[in-house]
Write a structure and sequence with these properties.
- The protein is of the alpha/beta class and 252 residues long.
- It has a single domain, classed as Rossmann fold (3-Layer(aba) Sandwich), CATH 3.40.50.
- The protein has eight helices and ten strands.
- The strands form two sheets. Strands 6-7-8-3-9-10 form a six-stranded mixed β-sheet, with helices on both faces. Strands 2-1-4-5 form a four-stranded antiparallel β-sheet, with helices on one face.
- The chain is globular.
- Bound molecules: adenosine-5'-diphosphate and magnesium ion (MG) (2 copies).
- The site of one magnesium ion has 4 residues, from α1.
């Protein structure tokens, strides 16, 4: 099956359990939002999916197109097409955006396969156009001196270049003004289609006005406590999170 499936996922930091049995299925072709109050495991879920060594999986599986990825190194996961846009993007001194993109694309290829210049340049030109970004940006050093908005736009540029099968976006909207938000959404929406699945993690409903999710899941205390359509995000926006916290207590 072409889907991202999370099955009874439990994960800890040290001996503190954070995820306590997450179950989710995201078919390729669908984007699902993950919402929830702060400190309830949303970022932990993203990091476990991409293989952050700080988190220990104590139970459960993460299946990408039927393959359990939990034993795979992060670069193998990337080769399966799993892409994480970080909440706090890294700076890599001395590496230009162009170099970085080239390396990242190369990392997704099988051994012996090269990223051709025409392929690289063609994709780059079209991605920059979608993001309304000048070509000169790619000679700048990765994230060095970038504004919050530029960092986010750069994440989306990476995403457009890599054409992932599954994206995990963690709080990509935090700190963005409406114009930057619209450009980010335009980039993501340009990739939407039968080949793209993923999770859009966000505390606020705002981003979901521009990237309308197929489903919305709410995580409280390390579990999915409610699943619905986009109207669920609207309800959270209007009513806050108190009512979902009570669902978590009722489920214990
Ligand atoms: P959210 O993204 O929903 O705000 P997180 O997944 O970041 O929540 O965090 C869930 C809980 O796990 C919080 O109590 C947080 O303090 C704790 N936690 C997450 N990562 C770490 C870490 N690396 N070290 C210690 N505690 C962590
Ligand atoms: Mg948080
Ligand atoms: Mg978080």
């Amino acid at each position: 099956p072409h889907q991202l499936e999370i099955r009874n996922l439990h994960a800890s930091v040290g001996d503190q359990p954070i995820l306590k049995g997450v179950n989710l299925v995201v078919p390729r072709g669908e984007l699902h939002a993950i919402m929830g109050p702060n400190g309830n495991g949303k970022s932990t879920l993203a990091k476990v999916i991409v293989g952050d060594p700080e988190y220990t999986v104590t139970e459960g599986e993460v299946l990408v197109d039927g393959q359990n990825i939990l034993e795979m190194e992060p670069d193998e996961r990337a080769r399966l097409g799993v892409f994480l846009a970080f909440q706090y993007p890294v700076e890599i001194p001395g590496v230009t955006i162009a170099n970085f993109l080239r390396l990242a694309m190369q990392a997704r290829k099988e051994e012996g396969e090269e990223v051709g210049f025409a392929e690289f340049y063609g994709k780059l030109t079209s991605a920059l156009k979608t993001l309304e970004w000048d070509e000169s940006i790619v000679e700048r050093y990765l994230n060095e001196g970038f504004s919050g908005g530029e960092k986010k736009r750069n994440e989306i540029l990476q995403m457009l270049m890599l054409e992932p099968n599954y994206i995990i976006m963690d709080e990509t909207d935090s700190g963005l003004d409406v114009d930057a938000l619209k450009i980010v959404a335009k980039g993501v929406n340009s990739l939407r289609g039968p080949n793209l699945g993923g999770l859009i993690i966000t505390h606020y409903q705002r981003l979901l006005n521009y990237i309308v999710p197929d489903k919305v899941h709410i995580i409280v205390d390390g579990r999915v406590v409610q699943t619905g359509g986009p109207e669920l995000a609207q309800r959270l926006d209007a009513e806050g999170y108190d009512w979902v916290k009570q669902l978590a207590v009722a489920g214990d």
